DNA sequence: ATATCTGTTATACAACAAATATAACAGTTG
DNA sequence: CAACTGTTATATTTGTTGTATAACAGATAT
């Protein structure tokens, strides 16, 4: 999977990494059971420090997306993804409400917003588009 | 309008302030032309520093949600809200994609996600529920 | 067994962001 | 003139982000 980082972004690198790995899983470019690069090799590939990758991996492990087998490597959770927990629902609401509120302010009607969400949903689930 | 801050949150206070003001406008609890408290009085009310409120106001001004009249006060933009600019669309995509990708990972199907977005949309547009 | 690969931990450092604390300035309004 | 606006400046504290090294401990391949 190709990782694209924007070093100019105000989004932390470890967050960009987490987001791209999660989208990779959502788009089935990364399948459960599939191994991810080691912290050192990924860090080297994308030109960041080992600890930055390790932070992303550790947080993804805490949320249940990946498993880390000591001395063996990092693998997309073969037991499946975490489900819709109450904690997750609260986090999702905290993320969605501000986005929806701003859309409303700017005059976006409900149908248009739903159309946009749907198109992103389709776009993610219809990857892989690895080759361009 | 009632402002609720979570001092334990990892979301910066000035961001929480911006979000709540934007949701206040979206829900029509704050109407265009309506005056907001001065930086000093709001800061005093919610128990934060003057500069924290000023940062939120300044950013809201930059995005076009409010106007700041020197020596007169802060007012919800009476010329209307900013529209759907390309910059905004990019920001919105950057905010939405990670949320949608995680929802997909966790097994939320498209209909359920759309239902959630719709319910938040309705919830925001059907405030004010000031009295509980 | 020895070298090499894992993740893990620890420490130190630089740069930056967030928030506070004071203070002062410059216009507006009562 | 006093009191209120937003604005600007400076300083300090605290926490986050990211880098840099280094070492540890277990697994694996030669």
Automatic annotation (TrEMBL), chains A, B:
It holds the Pfam family GntR. The keyword DNA-binding applies. Residues 11-79 form the HTH gntR-type domain. Keywords: DNA-binding, Transcription, Transcription regulation. GO terms for molecular function: DNA binding; DNA-binding transcription factor activity. The keyword Chaperone does not apply. Transmembrane segments: none annotated. InterPro entries: Tscrpt_reg_HTH_GntR (IPR000524), WH-like_DNA-bd_sf (IPR036388), WH_DNA-bd_sf (IPR036390). PANTHER family: GNTR-FAMILY TRANSCRIPTIONAL REGULATOR (PTHR38445:SF12), HTH-TYPE TRANSCRIPTIONAL REPRESSOR YTRA (PTHR38445). This is DNA-binding transcriptional regulator YhcF (GntR family). The lineage of its organism: Bacteria, Bacillati, Bacillota, Bacilli, Bacillales.
């Amino acid at each position: 999977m190709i990782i694209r980082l924007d070093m100019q972004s105000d989004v932390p690198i470890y967050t960009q990494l987490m987001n791209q790995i999660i989208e990779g899983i959502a788009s089935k470019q990364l399948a459960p059971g599939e191994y991810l690069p080691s912290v050192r090799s990924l860090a080297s590939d994308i030109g960041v420090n080992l600890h930055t990758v390790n932070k992303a991996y550790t947080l993804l492990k805490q949320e249940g997306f990946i498993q880390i087998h000591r001395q063996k490597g990092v693998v997309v959770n073969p037991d499946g993804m975490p489900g819709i927990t109450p904690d997750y629902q609260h986090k999702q609401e905290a993320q969605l409400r501000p986005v929806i509120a701003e859309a409303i302010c700017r005059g976006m009607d409900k149908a248009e917003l739903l159309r946009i969400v749907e198109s992103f949903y389709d776009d993610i689930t219809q990857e892989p588009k690895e080759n361009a």
